[in-house]
Amino acid sequence: MRRRGFTLIELLMAVIITAIMMTVCFITFNTAIRCWRRSAALADTMRNAEYALTQVVSGLRSAYYPTTGKQDYAYGFQLYDNGEDPGDSDMIQWIKLGTSIVGNRSQLSETPHTVRLWVQKEGREGPGGLWVKAGRLDLLVDDDDTDIDFNDDTQFEPYPLIEGVQGFDCKVQSKPDSVEGDGTPKWEDVWDASNSIPYRVKLTFWMQPTEKRGDPVPVMRVVEIPLWDISQNPVTVSSEDEKKESEAGRGRGGKSSPGGETPPGGGSAPRGTPGGGRGPAGAGGMPGGGGPM
Fold this sequence. Notes:
The protein is an alpha+beta fold. It contains four helices and eleven strands; from the N terminus they run H-E-E-E-E-E-H-E-E-E-E-H-H-E-E. It folds into two domains: about 190 residues, no CATH class; about 45 residues, no CATH class.
């Protein structure tokens, strides 16, 4: 029997089919690799965003305000609005307690301190990202020392908190009843009452794109600041407690606390002294009391 071989057309068809199958496999594999890389980049971006937001939210919840009986601009929240585009950066500044933002190895965590946050572009000053400047409160509220300037980078050196943040937008809700017609919170770009603390703060971080020529990734968080009511009415804790104790004493037959002593945990202190205000957990009678650590 005579054997029949492959014709040229059959060979060409086999080569074409093989080439098509290899092309499909390559495209599928390449797409899978790109998706994996994009997912890994997105995971890194979200991890950085979560770290940054956790630090800032914890810092805002650890806000410090003294109960000296008056509102003071030295302890208020400050907001500098610079736009809402992904490449813009607002700047915020407030007084806080605890280890958030500054770290548990910093001596600042043991006393009330000022922090300032903003996004800086990559350049000669350092890498791009969310930057921080922090300083001791007792130095910054000392009116007699004119040589201390928080805006001077040589005295208070800024440092990067987290890279990968390209833009930062902050909005505030001034008080609980500040709402729109539909009942949603009324967010404002300006905080004029810088002798107090806003009720809520909305933070939006624009993270770097996961792909070249991609769009920045927005990450948003809303935080309610516990000391809003204290900043609106910073009554002296000892005076208020003495009044309550006196009223309670009259109800028991006119007796009040002996010698007008202040109940434990209360009391006020000179401006800039640790424990002279209230933290989120109650009256501060110890250094760093009242703020989350």
